[in-house]
Amino acid sequence: MQSTANQRLTVIYNAYKSAFARRASDLKQATTAEQVQAIMDNVDALEASYLDAARQSLDATGPDIEACYQAALSATQSAEKAYASGKALAERIAAVSGVVSAVGNLVTKAAGAAA
Amino acid sequence: MSVRPFLGLALAAMAALGGCAAAPRVPAATLADAGLKATGSFSAEVKDVATQLREADAADSFTRTWEQCQSPAPGACVPSVTPERLSIQRNGLADVVDLRANAIDQLGAAYAAFKQEASYEQSTDLQGATRSAIDSANSFGQAAAALNKGKRFIPAVPGEVGALLDFGFGVLGDRLQRKRILRANREIAQAVLQLRNGMQNEMEVFMTLTDYLVGKRTAARLVFYDAKLTSPMTIMTPLADQLGVTLVPGAESMIADSPALMIALRATMEANSRVEVIEAQGRYRAGIAGLDALLRQHRELETKQSVTVGDVERIIDQLNASLAKYATPPDQQQQQQQPQQ
Description:
By secondary structure, chain A is mainly alpha-helical.
């Protein structure tokens, strides 16, 4: 079944919301400047994707866009698992970086094709 | 042949025709008042979202810097201002939201002209006002698209909504004011429909935006709380009131000395923010419901020359009550409720 524009927006927003909610506790565990920067960059990138998505109609269709949507869903689930299973901070940061890439691709594809 | 029966019939026919052709000034004025009230409240709600988007940087920079400073990493505690890119994006989004607020204001201006037309037996710039409202509603999509590099902002209008405007375009009376009022009634209704469809289609964006903005505010409030910059009584007192219990003297210091109570109140703050989101989302839905109710009354005016604006007013009163609640800062709300100690 094909995803709707609202479903895509919801995935993108929830990805940002989760990362934002976890930022404070992640930062408390960050022991290097690089980790601090990576945590901040991840949340900022997800927020930028959400703000982009909120301004645009993500209603383009096509197999590549569906693939991006599924990839974004999968990446967010992986990140959730990383937190739920108590993975080390470095692994959690890497998982959220994966969400950043997948969500960014979804916004670019779904909005770009709608132009 | 007696002229009496004929004269009686003629007088009755004239009276009937006169009544039929009379301008529906009273119901039109009633509807205009309801429209003014509805557009005023909805505009305030939408403008508030745009304002919050524009003003988010200060609280955001405060929160992110505090959070960074909680890290044990060397050199982490430095000022962390919201990245310019995010600031620009938020302002761009606020511009799009403002376009919608402008469309609502234009509709309000059309209702004001409608009211003037209905209240006085003189011509006003009703046509100009209604045309502006329609143009504004119609051009919203184009203006938003221009801001958005040509991409469409509003998805297609749902078909079932069009049925709300199935007036049938009844027979117009002879009197000029009646014609003007009924024509304006239809034109304003078209603008209401355009606006209503736009707001409905943007519902999901507004729902997430509300959550986003409340999330930012809550994060900043939590920092104030964690840093002990705000009294725990701002949360404790309304909670005690809600539960119908009286706090003992010295409750504030007891809370400050109890990590469990501090954490419990933090959880209450987060739960309160959820309520705040639900109420803001409810206001948006109430705004759309208000426009729907107005549309129904425009149809009543066209077909029956009468209106009953009770449901419009009920919806708008609820919207206004919720707006008023959040127009008062939490500290003042607490003081108004029941000062403690």
